[in-house]
Design a protein that fits this description.
The chain has 308 residues and is an alpha/beta fold. The protein has twelve helices and 15 strands. It has a seven-stranded parallel beta sheet, sandwiched between helices. It has a two-stranded parallel sheet with strand order 6-15.
């Protein structure tokens, strides 16, 4: 097995690709670990299954820092079944090889929050997927008691070039690029923070290479929240091309569509302010988020359009 200072677990997803790219730009040797070969020049490609403890241990052999950025299908059942296995395998391998683990997380474990989400927001999940993410954090805490060094990087909902699992990409930006009506979920007049995927990859690299970050939880750089309507106006510049998917429409869709069913329990993120505060990271490391207008422009310029 080739050795590298840094290993990205789940490297073929959008966050994995951005993290591998950022590490390579900074001159770090990188192993890209996934179920299929990496498409990024310069990375050592390793085929492995994170559900297999032997595979994970083999991938982390000789590794200084591992970044767990894997994504799973958007299913509460899959999350409850597979996240504990992936976490246990990764923790075991990190302890075995003395590897610093950087863990990429979302905000689901916070549950319903009044005001801005910060690093000190309590873990009070209010959904099945939130409870799965909270259980993962519990496993990491247990790992720390056994000697694990773990640094957590948390983002808001994300969007970015090639972010095929992003709700904003799928429902809005991809449709705009195709000349169709962009859609926002539930309430387009609530503020909603969005993290930009290249910023996430760059920030995770900092967490794995800057000793000031080590062993703490950080909110990754995220631009000030806009309302759904403001995001769509930035992207489409034409209010006539916007629509809002109501909760009634979503519930009807859930009768026939699994993704809609899985989205229903997270509706609170769109029916009240969803505010993500990354000031601690920005102030500590002097890194600021990409302006939203620039991020949206980058996505649209990289999205195939029948009109270009």
């Amino acid at each position: 097995m080739p050795t590298a200072t840094h290993v990205v677990l789940g490297a073929n997803g959008i966050i994995g690709r951005e993290t591998v790219t950022s590490l390579l730009k900074k001159g770090h040797p990188v192993k890209s670990v996934g179920r299929r070969p990496s498409s990024i020049d310069g990375a050592v490609s390793v085929i492995a299954d994170l559900l297999d403890q032997t595979d994970v241990s083999r991938a982390l052999d000789g590794t200084k820092v591992a970044y767990l950025v894997a994504g799973l299908p958007y299913s509460s059942r899959v999350w409850a079944e597979q996240w504990p296995v992936i976490l246990r395998n990764t923790i075991h391998a990190a302890l075995q090889h003395g590897t610093h683990l950087v863990y990429f997380d979302n905000v689901y474990a916070y549950g319903r929050v009044t005001g801005s989400m910060t690093e000190s927001t309590p873990i009070l999940p209010s959904s099945r997927k939130g409870r799965a993410r909270a259980a993962a954090l519990h496993l990491l805490t247990e790992g720390v008691t056994r000697g694990l060094t773990v640094t957590i990087g948390r983002s808001a909902d994300f969007y970015g070039p090639g972010a095929s699992t992003s709700v904003f990409n799928t429902f809005a930006l991809d449709k705009i690029a195709a000349g169709k009506t962009a859609t926002w979920l539930y309430d387009a007049d609530q503020p909603h923070s969005l993290s930009y995927t290249p910023d996430i990859g760059n920030a995770l690299t900092i967490l794995g290479t800057d000793d000031r970050a080590r062993g703490q939880t950080w909110h990754l750089p995220t631009a000030p929240a806009l309302t759904g309507r403001e995001y769509l106006m930035l992207a489409a510049d034409d209010e006539a091309r916007m629509s809002v998917m109501s909760s009634t429409t979503m519930r009807i869709g859930a009768l026939f569509n699994g993704s809609a069913r899985e989205t229903l329990e997270m509706d609170y993120q769109y029916t009240s302010p969803y505010l993500f505060d990354s000031q601690l990271f920005e102030g500590t490391f002097g890194i600021h988020p990409t302006p939203t207008a620039d991020g949206i422009a980058a996505v649209l310029s990289n999205t195939p359009s029948p009109f270009r």
